[in-house]
Amino acid sequence: MRIPLVADKDQAILSAHDEKAPTPIRKHKFPEPKLRVHLNDLSHPGSGTILNRLRPAEDFSEQVQNVLNLLYDPKDPRPATRSITLVLRDCGGGVAYTTGIELDDDHKEIHFDLNYIWNDSDRNASANKATQQTREELLGVICHELVHCFQWNAENTAPGGLIEGIADWVRLRAGLAAKHWRREAGGDWDAGYQHTGYFLEYLEQRFGEGTVKGINARLREDQYDEEEFWKDCCDGKTVEKLWEDYRKSLKELDEGVSTLG
What we know:
Elements: H1 9-16, E1 34-39, H2 45-53, H3 56-71, E2 83-89, E3 96-101, E4 104-113, H4 114-126, H5 131-150, H6 160-173, H7 193-207, H8 211-221, H9 226-231, H10 239-260
Parallel strand pairs: 1-2, 2-4
Antiparallel strand pairs: 3-4
Helix pairs in contact: 1-10, 2-4, 3-5, 4-5, 5-6, 6-7
């Protein structure tokens, strides 16, 4: 593995953090909502993939604990999620989404597309890759969607990119980053998903453990106002300045790798 030369603290942060973070130590055992799995069609090949690759009771619970430990301390207020049902079905496309049931939003459903599950498994098999890669992708998607069951969202006013970025940051920290993920400096900070997730990891490394946990906590307090929200985070820097610093660090890191040839 080639180690880049680093010129400053920001570069050191990025070079020290691998594309795939280690699984976190679960410091606390949080109480869990009722967890259910609903399998719509046993004859679908994606159903066989799920049953062969996952241990539903153990894996579902483990990812709930990952999410809660990364976003909360035991005494922190949390959304009153009462149950989560993992619905495995033919969604007609896409990967997965999370919703509350119509009568009570405290009961969540994660809908995971069986076609995606089967196609991902088939791709890995055709490429002679280990089944572990399929398992990690399934767990990664479930982990991401579970974040949406427990995170705050500033009364539904937070940028969608921040919400999705927090979900992928948790997935990254749980050691379940997708193989295709890359840190990228293009676009805006709130483009979402891994793009924002890696930016949040940069902030976590730069400003200390609990930074992203604090960002989530502030999303509970009021409706989102970008200037006010970020002024109390990360030494009072604006999010635009933080994003500029992050982009500069990525560029310098790339140049460091190139210099080593």
